[in-house]
Design brief:
The complex is a heterodimer of chains A (109) and B (602). Chain A has 109 residues and is mainly alpha-helical. Chain A contains two helices and two strands, in the order H-H-E-E. The radius of gyration of chain A is 41 Å and the shape is rod-shaped. Chain B folds into two domains: 76-243, Penicillin-binding protein 2a (Domain 2); 247-584, Beta-lactamase (3-Layer(aba) Sandwich), CATH 3.40.710. In chain B, the strands form seven sheets. In chain B, strands 2, 3, 4, 5, 10, 18 and 19 form a seven-stranded mixed beta sheet that branches. The N and C termini of chain B lie far apart (141 Å). The chains are: A mainly alpha (109), B alpha+beta (602). Chain A binds chain B through residues 38, 40-42, 44-45, 48-49, 52, 55-56, 59-60, 62-64, 66-67, 69-72, 75, 86-90, 92-98, 100-109, and chain B through 91-92, 95-98, 151, 173, 178, 180-182, 184, 220, 222, 226-230, 247-248, 251-252, 255, 509-510, 578-579, 581-582, 587-588, 593-602. Strand 1 (94-97) of chain A pairs parallel with strand 24 of chain B.
Amino acid sequence: MTKRRTKNNNKRSFLKLCFPLYFVFCLFATIWLRAAVINMEYELGELDKIKAELIRERKMAVAQRANFYSTEKIEKVAMNRLGMTLPVRDNVFYVKRTPAAGPYKAALK
Amino acid sequence: MRHRLLKRKRQKIDDRKLWDEDLKNIPLENSRKRAVVIITIISFGFVVILFRLINLMILDHEKLSGRASQQYIREKTLTPQRGVIWDRNMKEMATNIETDSLYAVPSNIRDTGNLSAKIAPIIKVSAGEINRLLVKKKEKSFAWLSRRMDMETSEKLNVLREPIKEGEIGFVTEPKRYYPKGQTASHILGFANIDDKGIAGLELVYNDYLKGEVKSVSVGLDARGKSLMSDVKEAVPGNNILLTVDEGLQYIVERELTNAMEERKAKAAVAIMMNPMTGEILALANRPTYDPNFPSAADGEEKRNRAITDLYEPGSTMKSILASAAIEEKAVSLNNMFDVSKGSITVGGKTIHDVHRHGVLTFQEIIKKSSNVGAVKIGMRLGATKYYEYMKRFGFGEKTGIDFPGETRGILRNVKNWSGTSLAAMSIGQEIGMTPLQMLRAYSAIANGGVLMKPYIVSEIISPDGKAIKRNSPTEERRVISKATAATLRDILKTVVEEGGTAQKANVKGNLVAGKTGTAQIFDPKTGHYSKNRFVSSFVGFAPADNPKVALIVVVYEPAGETYGGLVAAPVFKNIIEHTFAYLDVPMETEENKILLVSRDR
């Protein structure tokens, strides 16, 4: 009889001790989660900045590419640096395909 | 001994029993009371906390969360990206870049003079001016110092770490309009101002499509102003525009026009290239010109789009219109002969002269040799009313309707208001004002078989997600002459560039060209007479003549030295067409061009 009572008493004491511990655990878990979220927001804020910077660089690259590929620039480079000239239509031949076409023989007619 | 030990053991057992019984019998009232009190106090404490939590989290939730938001959430306005303008081959003609704009926080600045002295040489504004601005706005927390700076300048400013750290100055990223092709197509594109609003050209006409939608973004900031995650919404960018213009052709036209201006020391020049079948504008150039990246550096003359805003008297190019009307109305036939040997004709008290004396000319030769006397005689046969009707039909005296700002309708007086000399004058292209685009459109009608097409320069407006929200397609305004008449005119205009014609310098090797020269005196309003030394030289035509790919007009205003259209404008036309055909891979038509036949050797 005494043993059973003691056993019950011990159980109740254990539960009474667990309850506040559990409560404290929940509290810390909530605070930890909140801190983790804030931390993630900071990281996302940093990533936003990096993304904005990359977008900026990309726009600049697109603009520079458009500038490099302008006909005026290409002509200047071709003429001044590569020694090329404007095309002369006399030197252009248009090839006519025959039904049995094949690049084995060429004849001027 | 053993008896004593047993007795002691029994006593202990008895004592223990007695103890157990005592425990049963001792009253628990005091302990219970104490426990109840303690539990009550603790419970009460928890209840109070619970009520406070309910009060804070439920009852006062809105008020407190609003106050908290005010402290760490800021609303930031995002400037939308302006839409891109592409040429017909999707090459960027107008785009956007991100630039830094510098602002000051005058209320934070301790020594305005020192800061001004540091910033002035970098942003190229006088230190005194900056200092005055900062002193004037001393109580304010924001003042612009320089907007949309280039990268080099903003990098130099970044070196001033202390003022930035102290919160005296700061940077804001703003989009800036950028035209990567420089001067090319400047009059077509126009430009946008510092607030990204279209001011001229297509930037103005299509501003509502190009500008995006301003959006607000919620940005979270901590106590030190460091940003947390922002709302993912972004500003809605503007719609994009696809032009009918070809950047390569545009450059060819601009280059030749620049060469002509330098060679002829002219005051101005215009060239417009159009697809006569569809009305698409392939190129449009004016000289003088400007760089839309630096619009403030250009004056009004450089920004003027003479192609559609300036009127000129077309001179002999009008004879083709007269001839079309005469053929269509059967007022003349190709075999009719006209005696122009006198070299002049007097109508209504006004004497009109031929530049060169001719004998008896056929109708065709009158156009080929550009005889003024012959043209007046044709005009008299046609009659004023009919001639006026055809000029209206060809679109003179009305706007073309091109999607461009500032177009003028031109001057074509109603036939009721014509004087005794008007028919003669208009037969040789005087007493009428038109834009180069109007003349080109009229010749395009001859080129395409007699249909007046509406010119347009924007092909599509495309939303940011790639959908076409507006599309322009070829529009036939009306038929002005029959196909047969158009074919006859084409044949006549081919002779103009042949030997004996006035435009031999417009002849393009390997392809047939049809066109007409014009050399018009400029009317001087001060004297009330036509000037003897100020001319407008022009050539308008199309090629290949029998299957036209392009129609082109070149107008050169007040060239020095030679003034004839055949000597000034025609060579420009030839150069542009030759390079255009090389660019577009248009083969030569004549038999001189050898065709390389390739066959397999079996």
